[in-house]
Amino acid sequence: MQVEIIMPKMGESIQEGTILRWVKNLGEKIEKDETLLEISTDKVDSEIPSPVSGIVAKVFAKEHDTVLVGTIIAYIETDASISIDTYQDVSPEATAKKPQEDIGVPQDQLSIVQDWEQKRNAQRFYSPLVKMIAKREGIAQRDLEKIKGSGSNGRVTKDDVFTYLKQRERNAAELYSNDRSFSILSVDILELSKKYPSPKYRIVKMDNIQKKMAEHMVRSVNTTPHVTVVDEADMTEIVNFRLSILEQFEKRQGFKLTYTPFFAYAVVSTLKEFPLVNCSVEGDTIIYKNFINLGMAVASPNGLIVPVVRNAEEKNFVDMARSLTDIALRARTKKLTPNDIADGTFSMTNYGIFGSIIGTPIINQPQSAIIGVGLIKKRPQVVTNDSGKDSIGIRSVVYLTMTFDHRIIDGATGGKFLSRVKWQLEHFDFQSVK
């Protein structure tokens, strides 16, 4: 039996995906849940697993093709008795090289295509190849009839259909791109190579995720007046507590306890007290959210990405830690979907894990604020005891940075918010961890 592999819908607004790489090629064996291919949308790169075990029997799209959601891109043959030699490449490139009467269209697909045409009472002649492509790509009969043919007597050719599909893809990309007014200028790489010749220079195009991230950052800076405040928190008690339960926690919960959940839990607790910081702005209107979707910046193989912990206000400490571990792992292994990075209301970025002690993060639009966490580092600090006497002690200290949208959050609110996060960390409720 042959099982259809279709371009998956990776999010509510996602209408197409680009095939980055076929991990398994035509004729190769594949196990259920083993990665078949990698795809990219304008939001995230993802690995797509095979729904069944079998052999890649047919491939309809090549690497770097952009394909509409719902389109059949391959078939997996689950019958192990069928010879690999019977498999053939039926991609547009392969079929285009063959005469029309020998295009290798499977009889079942051809009959479906003919039925599809007859049901729509087609008045115009289309070759079997054109009809197969139209059926596969979901081109409605009324749209097919609008395609201007370049063949004899105005007949529509496969090239005419491919030209139509490319234009449809461009239109879809423009329709669903929120950052199109801040798009990065595309530069001719051949012209650049003359200016920066090899081997002294190496020229590499941004990948899809890098380009979208760049456009998103430009949009954020051009949309929002950024203001940044900095504070420091004494993490000594948290550091000592974490070390004391590290092994026990991992045995009990099945994952390692990092410092990130402590920061996230303190931030979410503070957001409950400062709902304005959890807002977004649309024109002259402030949108209050009765939920907290906490975005956590993660360094993935394709660059920085911000998956979201949804309804973070409902999670206890252990649930928060587990959710953060899950999204970080899936981000690094390309298991995220666009829905995993959508609808964030506030973001955190922990550049301290790379050794940076302080930074000024850019707001993740359309959110109104972001907090940055630096490296926890031992420093000499003035310590005041209960009787009010000062002394010098070695303390574990972290710098916290908050960048906020000055259109709705003023300096007083921003400063108070960050001070409250500091207080939550320095007076952490360790009973919540157990």
3D architecture notes:
- With about 425 residues, the protein is α+β, with helices and mostly antiparallel strands.
- The protein folds into three domains: about 1-160, RNA polymerase II/Efflux pump adaptor protein, barrel-sandwich hybrid domain (OB fold (Dihydrolipoamide Acetyltransferase, E2P), Beta Barrel), CATH 2.40.50; about 180-225, no CATH class; about 225-434, Chloramphenicol acetyltransferase-like domain (Chloramphenicol Acetyltransferase, 2-Layer Sandwich), CATH 3.30.559.10.
- Helices cover about 30% and strands about 25% of the residues.
- It has helices at about 90-95, 105-120, 130-135, 140-145, 160-175, 190-195, 210-225, 235-255, 260-275, 315-330, 410-425, and strands at about 1-5, 15-20, 30, 35-40, 45-50, 55-60, 65-70, 70-75, 225-235, 280, 285, 295, 300, 305, 310, 345-350, 370-375, 375-385, 390-405.
- The strands form five sheets. Strands 9, 12, 15, 16, 17, 18 and 19 form a seven-stranded mixed sheet that branches. A four-stranded antiparallel sheet has the order 1-8-6-3, with no helix packed on it. The chain has a four-stranded antiparallel sheet with strand order 5-4-2-7.
- The two termini are about 50 Å apart.
- About 30% of the residues are buried.
- Residues about 90-115, about 115-120 and about 175-180 have low confidence and may be disordered.
